[in-house]
């Protein structure tokens, strides 16, 4: 029988810091984010003192004055996440990236889960917990109960039910406060209550999404493992430019930065846009924009950068004050599904700058090498764990 495994790194950001600073092992460690204002991850030693994820740093300091507080470094966490994902994929080709430190995969022999766990600890330095069960929702619930550094394989219904009886229904990802309240009104409080409830009732309360979870809790695989990323209609990158500004160099710097981020995301999803849109928020609620059809579907940095710059040229005028910028890629085609014409530009040549940039950044972390136009926004690069990277973390920020 093919089973589903859920692998989740234990206090990932802290563990990642311990990989490069082994002296932190066994000590109460907190990783802080949000411009140093709150704890976004904590070690088990810090957790014992009562510090909670999301808590303000000044509260945490009261509870754990001897703690070691480190500023986050998402570039480093991404690099380690990639390493870990590679190790899982190599052994289990049907692996889905779920978040920066969580993957689902199909597993034929559950006893191999322990081998994988030990291997990741040895070769990546990261402690992880693995849950193995008949469906992905069960696997995730069970891995949560086995933390830290556990492996829990549950394949028989009796043990499933025993564990589900101990878990609140809100432990199921996808069931939050509002749904939880609706269920509680019907006396459905534990995961077991949920699994044992009438399927039609669940559907009437929580629509098809709820019904899918019901099947999953009853051991049916409804949500498949997606080794390919789902197809997007649009992919966009942008946001605040760090305070409204009329400085053309700064705005062009942000344009380069957002184009780099966009290319990175297009690479990740292996798609090429045929259309590009630039939207600038200029005043409260007001915006200006431009749209171009690309000559061919491409995610070459030089071509997209040129298209972005042309769009900005068309809307730019002195005195324009910009607060937000979005770059949106549309008409996306998957690699291999692009009809090539004789006049299309070739793919990125092997020797190109963009390829070298990507290779280096893949190895040591995002944006280690970047476009020189972004030098006009030094505040973004003041330090390597700056907040501007936050929104680029796929899946989740805290855990
Ligand atoms: Mg985790």
Structure characterization notes:
This protein has 399 residues and is an alpha+beta fold. It folds into three domains: 147 residues, 2-Layer Sandwich (Alpha-Beta Plaits); 62 residues, MutS, DNA mismatch repair protein, domain I (3-Layer(aba) Sandwich), CATH 3.40.1170; 158 residues, DNA polymerase, Y-family, little finger domain (Dna Ligase, domain 1, 2-Layer Sandwich), CATH 3.30.1490.100. It is built from 13 helices and 14 strands. A five-stranded mixed β-sheet has the order 5-6-1-7-8. It has a four-stranded antiparallel β-sheet with strand order 9-13-11-12, with helices on one face. Strands 3-2-4 form a three-stranded mixed β-sheet, with helices on both faces. It is globular and about 70 Å long. 34% of the residues are buried. The protein binds magnesium ion. The site of magnesium ion has 5 residues, from strand 1.
Please provide a brief summary of the model.
The chain is 38% helix and 21% strand. It has helices at residues 12-20, 44-47, 57-63, 74-91, 112-124, 136-145, 157-164, 177-185, 191-196, 199-217, 248-269, 301-315, 353-364; strands at 3-9, 29-33, 38-42, 68-71, 95-99, 102-107, 128-133, 151-153, 235-245, 271-272, 275-283, 286-293, 322-330, 333-334. Helix 11 (248-269) packs antiparallel against helix 12.
Bound molecules: magnesium ion
**Strand element count:** 14
* Uncertain spans: 384-399
State the helical fraction.
Answer: 25-40%
Number of helical stretches of at least 4 residues = 13
As a whole number of angstroms, the C-alpha radius of gyration is: 24 Å
Q: Which strand order does the major sheet show?
A: 5-6-1-7-8
Total domain units: 3
Q: Mind describing the biggest β-sheet?
A: 5 strands, mixed
Q: Which series of helices and strands comes N to C?
A: EHEEHHEHEEHEHEHHHHEHEEEHEEH
Here the CATH topology of the largest domain equals: Dna Ligase, domain 1
Give the CATH superfamily of the largest domain.
DNA polymerase, Y-family, little finger domain
The gross shape turns out to be globular
User: In percent terms, what proportion of residues is strand?
Assistant: 15-25%
Distance between the termini: 31 Å
Instruction: State the secondary-structure class.
Output: alpha+beta
